[in-house]
Structure formats: C-alpha cells, structure tokens
Amino acid sequence: MSAFYLDLQTSAGVSAPLELDSDCLEPRTSPTKHPGQPLRHTGSGGLGMALEEELAMLSGERGDEGGLSDVEMPAVGHNADLLSLFRQKEKDLVLAAKLGKALLERNQDLTKQYEKMHKDLNEKLEHLEQEKHELRRRLESREGEWEGRVAELETDILHLQGELERHQVQLRDTDRDKTKAIGELSEQNHRLLEQLSRAAEVERQLSTQVNSLRDDFREKSMSTSQHMTRLETLQAEIKMLSERKMELEHRVHAMLEENELLQNTVDDLRERTLVLERQCHQKDLQVQTLNTLKPLGDYYNTWIYWKKNTFFSQLHNLPKSNHLTSLETCCMRLQLWEAYCEVRSLCSHLRGNDVTDSALSTDSSMDESSETSSAKDVPTGSLHTSLLELRRLTQNLLDGNESTMALLSVETRSLQEENERMKTMAELREPSEQLQSAIRDRDDAIAKKKAVEMELAKCKIDIMSLNSQLLDAIQQKLNLSQQLEAWQDDMHRVIDQQLMDKYQDEWRSAPSSLSGASRAHGGQSSRRAHRISDRDRRLFSFFKKS
After folding, report:
1. Helix intervals (H) in 34-72
2. Close Cβ partners of 7 (under 8 Å, ≥ 6 residues apart)
C-alpha cells in the first residue's frame, strides 16, 4: 500500500506544471505518537516509512498476541484505530492526487482554448484592418465622383431655370387657351348631364321593373316553399304507405305459404281420414261378423250347457237305472265326444287357428274306427274347461271390438273436427277486405304522388322562367351601367387627349409660328369635337333603342 502511495505521489509531482505548487495539494497531517514507538513525519517519504514501520510493528504484535496480558489489550485496539486512520488518510491523498491531475488537465485545456481564441482574434483584426483600408479607398473614389456629379447638376439647374422661365411664358398662353376649352367643355358637360338624367330615368324604370320581378319571384318562392312542405308531407305519407305495402306483401306472402302448408296438411289429413275410414269399415265388418257369431255362441253355450246337464244327470242316474242298453251308452259317448270336438274347434277358430288340433283329429279317427272305446277317452272336466275357455275368448273378442270401435269413433270425430277447423282457417286466410283497402290506399297514394310531382314540375318551370327574366333584367341593367362608365371614361380620355395635344403643339411650335399653330390646333379641335358629337349621337340613339 505504501508503494502505491509513493507511485501516486511521484506521478502527481511529475504531471504538475511549473506554475502550481504540488505541496499545497497534500493534506497536512498532525504527527501522532504510539505508546512505546514515536512516528516521524517528514514529508510524503517520511509518511510512507512510518506506515511501513507501523505495519511491521502490528504484525509483530500479532505474533506475540498469546503472551500479552489483560493490561496490554487497550494498546492493541489503539493500534487498530491508528491503522484505520492511516488508511483513511491514504485514501484522501489518492483523491487529492486525482483532483490535482484533473485540475492540471483542465488548465491545459484552458490554455489551449486561450491560444486558439487569441489566434482567431488576431486574424479577425487583420481582416477588419483590410476592410477598413478598402472602405477608405472606396470613400475617396466616391467623393471624387460626387464632386463631379454636383458640378454637373449645378450646370443642369442653371439650364433648367432658363427653360422654366420659357415654360412659364408658354403656360400663361396655354392658360388662356385652357379657359376657352373649359368653356366649351362646360357646354358639352351640360348637354351630357341632360343625357345622363334621361339615362337615370331609364334606370329608374328598369329598377321598378326589377323590383316588380323580384316581388313576383318572392311570391313564387313562397308558393314553392309551401309546395315543398306539402311535397315533403306527401313523401312521408308515400314512404309510410310503401312500408305498409311491403309489410302487407310480406304478410300476404307468409299467409300464402302458411295456406299452402295448411293445404298440404289438409291433404294429408284427408288421406289419413280415408285410411281410417277404410280401417273403420273393416272393423265394422269384423263387428258384424262377431254380432252374427254371438247368437251362435249363445246357442252353443245353451246347447252345451244342456248337454252337460243331461249327460251328468244320465251319469248320475246310470248306477240306479239298469234299464239302459249298451247302444244308448255308446250313442251318449259319441254325442259327448262330438260336443267336445266342436268346442275345441270353436276355441281354435277364435284363437286364429284354422287347422284343428292333431290330437282331436286322431281321437276322432279312433272314435270313427272303433265304437267300443270307453268314456275315459274324454278327460274328466276337460269339456267344462273347454266351454269356459270358449266363453272367455268370445267375451274378450267382444270387449276388444267394443274398445276398438270406441277408439276409432273418437279418432274419426277428432279428425272431422280438425278438418272443419282447417277449412275455416283456409277460408279466413283468403285476401280480406283489409288487404283490399290497403291496396286501394296504396293506389290512391301513388296517384297523389304523381299529381304532386306534376304540380312540382310546373312550379319548377315557373321558377326557372322567373329566374331567367330576373337575370335578363339584371344583365340589361349591368350593360347600361357599363356603357355609362365607358362613356364617362371616353369623355375623360377625350378631354385629356385635347389638353395633351395642345401642350405638345405649343412645345413643338416656335414663337414665330405660334399664330399658325393655334389655327391648326383650332381645326384639329373642331374635328375632334365633330367626332365627339358623332359618338354622342350614337350613344343617344342606343338609349332611344333601349
């Protein structure tokens, strides 16, 4: 650290200029004493040596740190404070060196700027001296020219004074001629004023015509505004009616589509009604067949019941009566078997079987082949169960037909009501009186619109004609005013031209030929007056034509 400090000090001493004292940049530190070893502060080199000795002593004390007693501990803390103080001082010295270096660089920059500015100032002074010399030389040349010019002007003034005297004499002569010309021109102005009064009268008449045309135009514009308001109201009504027409057309289109859908549904319902009527007819046929079979079933029931009663009574009386023969017994068995077969065939027919039971066919064939079969071939109670089954099937068939008939009748009635409702809705969906009235209103609105458009076209034609008349009157008035201004300009131009001609003739003519020039000028003025009178006559003839 001390070596770094010494390098900084040497660099600062080398870079410092001759004008600055580097010793002033060093901070003045008060010498401090360590207990047991004093510090010697003799400049920057002495400070570095003192720091090295202090560091060596601190390292030696750290080696002997184990042998120190409690009494020497405050001395170690004091050495650490000194070391931190030295480090802070060293940092301050480094900052002071950096500051000195920066100040030196700033001083060098300022010196360079000063030299540059001094050089620029010298160059500008030289340039100003050159300009001053050039201006002095030009001033001298201008003074010589000015003196020559003044001499020339003085000679010109003397010459012009002589000419002025001659011109004054001539002007007095021209004043006399001018008074004569003014008298003549005053007479001409009097005549022109009379013509101007007549032109003003014509202008007043034209202004009255313009005012009348303007009033007519205002009245027409008011009527046009009224027509426009009426047209706007009619356009609003037409727009409303057109919207209503479009709405009604949409409604009619929707009604037609709905009517078509309803017509399709009506056709479907008619087909469905035909199918249901066909099914109902078939069910009626079935019911009729059942009604025809019902008495037959009752007859069979009574006959079977009677057969059963007689058979059981005969069986019951068989052990008591021994008078029956074997032939009657066989006949009874045969009748019993036939009744059983008939009951079975009816049950199978009611169940939907067209073919009889195979067992029945075999039993019937066995009975036909042998007449000596016993009564045990017919099962006990089977005839009764067959009769009960026949009764149940008949009752079920009758109940099913009744429920089917009721259902078909209800469905037919609902279909008829729906058909009637569809018919009424289709009749109501046809174009009503409201739609016809709306169509009539639309036609009336279209007719009114056409009439209003015709009336508006007529009003526009009238307005255009009035505008054209008003524009013609304004144009005529503008033409008259332009002609009047042109006439006044011509008069001023003629007067100026006469005066200029007089002046030119007087300037050109010599004093000896002044009388001849005046006679020529009088002839020329008479010719010009003749031309002016011709022009006035043409102007008055134009006013008379207008």
Report:
1. 43-63
2. none
pLDDT tens figures, 90-138: 888 888 888 888 889 989 999 999 999 999 999 999 999 999 999 988 8
Q: Is the pLDDT at 443 greater than 70, yes or no?
A: yes
Using CA atoms, how far apart are residues 355 and 63, in angstroms rounded to an integer? 138
Beta carbons of 262 and 483 less than 8 angstroms apart:
no
Region 72-94: mean pLDDT is 77
Q: How far is CA 52 from CA 1, 3, 41, 46, 48, in A?
A: 9, 10, 13, 10, 6
Tell the residue number behind the tokens 């770094």, with chain if given.
4
Q: Which long-range contacts link 448-455 to residues 24+ away (Cβ below 8 Å)?
A: 448/234, 448/237, 448/238, 449/234, 449/235, 449/238, 452/230, 452/231, 452/234, 455/227
With CA atoms as reference, report the closest residue to 98 among 6, 23, 12: 12
| Environment class of 281 (CB within 10 Å of its CB; exposed 0-12, middle 13-18, buried 19+) | exposed
| Dihedral pair phi/psi, residue 42, rounded to 5° | -125, 75
Instruction: For residue 463, give every residue at least 6 positions away whose Cβ sits within 8 Å of its Cβ, in sequence order, or none.
Output: 217, 220, 221, 224
Instruction: Give Rg (Cα) of the chain.
Output: 77
CA–CA distance, 453 with 228 (Å, rounded to integer): 10
CB atoms within 10 A of CB 121: 10
Query: What is the structure's pLDDT at 121?
Result: 93
Return d(Cα 493, Cα 497) in angstroms, integer.
6
Strands 33-34 and 37-38: antiparallel
Left if phi > 0, otherwise alpha if psi is -120 to 50, otherwise beta: which for 432?
beta
Residues 6+ apart with CB under 8 A from 376: none
Q: Which one has a higher pLDDT value, 23 or 534?
A: 534
Query: In residues, how long is the chain?
Result: 546
All structural domains of the chain with their residue ranges: 165-232+441-545, 255-431
The answer to whether 43 and 1 are in contact (CB under 8 A) is no
Structure-token pair, residue 193? 């004023």
Tally of CA atoms within 13 A in the half-sphere of 526 that contains its CB:
5
AA letter at 81: D
Question: Which single residue is written with the structure tokens 């009348």?
Answer: 212
Tell me the CA distances in angstroms from 503 to 47, 506, 523, one per residue in order. 115, 5, 15
Q: What is the mean pLDDT of residues 328-339?
A: 64
Distance of CA 149 to the CA centre of its chain: 80
Burial 247-280 (b: 16+ CB within 10 A, else e): ebeeebeebeeebeebeeebeebeeebeeeeeeb
pLDDT of 212-250, one tens digit each?
Answer: 888 877 787 787 777 778 778 877 877 887 787 788 778
